[in-house]
Amino acid sequence: MNYEGLNDTQLWKLISADDRKAFGYSFTLYSKDLFRYGQKFTGARQVVEDSIQDVFLDLWHKRKTTNIEQSIKFYLFTAFRREIIRKLSKLRQQEPMDYFAPEQLLEASHMEGIILQQGKNESNQQLYKAIRNLSERQREAVYLRFFANLNYKEISGMMGISVEALYNLIFKSIKILKESLRESVQYQTK
Fold first, then answer.
1. 109-190 domain in CATH 1.10.10.10?
2. Is the pLDDT of residue 14 over 80?
3. Residue 35 near residue 48, CB atoms below 8 Å
4. pTM recorded for the entire structure
5. How far apart (Å, rounded) are the C-alpha atoms in residues 53 and 47?
6. Is there a contact between 147 and 119 (Cβ–Cβ < 8 Å)?
7. Per the database record, which ranges form the RNA polymerase sigma factor 70 region 4 type domain (predicted)?
8. I need a labelling partner for 61 at 20 to 30 A (CA). Which of 83, 89, 102, 122 fits?
């Protein structure tokens, strides 16, 4: 069966009816996005990978009783966010702070990873510098909206803020990015 043409409702019906191939397809479809999102929280690759595995394992075990009302992607991002925060909180109590170095948070996110890969292009280097001016929460909101392509309602639910507050957060983030880039261009032309 070709799962690529299915919408989330159809895919979820197959998964909840014990279709392992549909479940595998959903893992293939979303695990890379979850991994990139997880790197935003920590540079500890194993913690991110374990969290992804745990979320999918839990979903498979609860497939008969779970009702995904919105999208599978939204469900997975929400469950993954809770799982990785839970794991990191537990590690904070047990492990040294190496897992939580701010440099890793900046270097590891998908958004910045793309920019670093194209580091030869000066405008991308400027954008990377501008992104560093955003708070963690701003980077998370921008990532979820523009890279994970979640809608404002989904993101606001995940982050625990109102849609209006999310609009403001993203608006301010974009404003900071524009100002940082403008300053960078002005500095270079002098």
1. yes
2. yes
3. yes
4. 0.68
5. 10
6. no
7. 125-175
8. 89
